[in-house]
Amino acid sequence: MQSLRGQKAVVTGGNRGLGLAMVESLVARGALVTVVGRDAERLKEVSSRLGVDVVRGDVADEALAKSVIGDIRPTLLLLNAGAAPGLGPLHEQTWEGFSRSWNNDVKAGFHWLQHALRLPLAKGSRVLLSSSGAAVNGSPLSGGYAGAKRMVWLMAQYASGVSQELGLGITVQALVPRQIIGDTEHGRLAAEAYAQRKGVSVSEFLAGFGAPMPPKQVGEHVVTLLTDPKYEQGIAYGVKGDSGIVLLDG
Question: Mean pLDDT throughout 116-127?
């Protein structure tokens, strides 16, 4: 898939943050994009500005996943939608906040992957799930977020194995941003919480990750992953402002 022009793409959570940056990069390459999200106003704005189709709904709803995949039959499926985790140390968490990422991010990934494999998507299709660097090093102020993002990563691995075993020809991979991105709403809230814990400013905390990685750069990394043949074989790819795209398998 060296060109995205004319490819049908579905991006969950594509109406804000990193998902929106992915949508912008896909549209710039001529992809035909459908954005799935909950916020009607944000969806309307994205549709008006970028000319994309939109579907409003809960990405963790299995019926929604089945209908969107069946109706659109995308060749690019970017599962990016994620709920903001409850922030605070373990002893101050509620189970509702602690489990939020499992009940949204993992549940959504589970349903969308299942229906992508069951339909199945056409041979040569690409599925990219958004994980997090927290899946590697943990995230003590984010409840069950780190474990959920590790499960998302593992589901990409499992689905890739199913695709190979059944000869489906679907490439399933995980995108792993290796730093908090303060230019997004979720990233800003997380950066504020960790900066306060460390007793430093938000800018000082974010500087600890090295070179910044704005959402637009993440969107461009995604395009590279989808179009450069050297990234076809791996499962998990980390992205970072100062090191670019790095294979995390093994």
Answer: 98
CATH number at residue 59: 3.40.50.720
Residues above pLDDT 70, as percent of the chain: 100
- The pLDDT, as a whole number, for residue 2 is 82
Q: Is residue 217 part of a domain?
A: yes
- Domain range for 182: 8-247
pLDDT band at 250 (very low <50, low <70, confident <90, very high): confident
Is 2 part of any domain? no
Residue 218 is encoded by which pair of tokens? 């993440």
The per-residue b/e assignment along 92-124, b for 16 or more CB within 10 angstroms, e otherwise, is ebeeebbbbbbebbbbbbbbbbbbbbeebbeee
Q: Has residue 20 been placed in a domain?
A: yes
Count the alpha carbons within 13 Å of 37 in the hemisphere toward its beta carbon.
28
* Cα separation, 119 vs 70, whole angstroms: 7
Distance (Å, whole) CA 7 – CA 76: 7
pLDDT at residue 1 greater than cutoff 70: no
Task: For residue 239, tell me if it sits in a domain.
Answer: yes
d(CA 142, CA 129) in angstroms, rounded, equals 19
**How many domains are contained in the chain?**
1
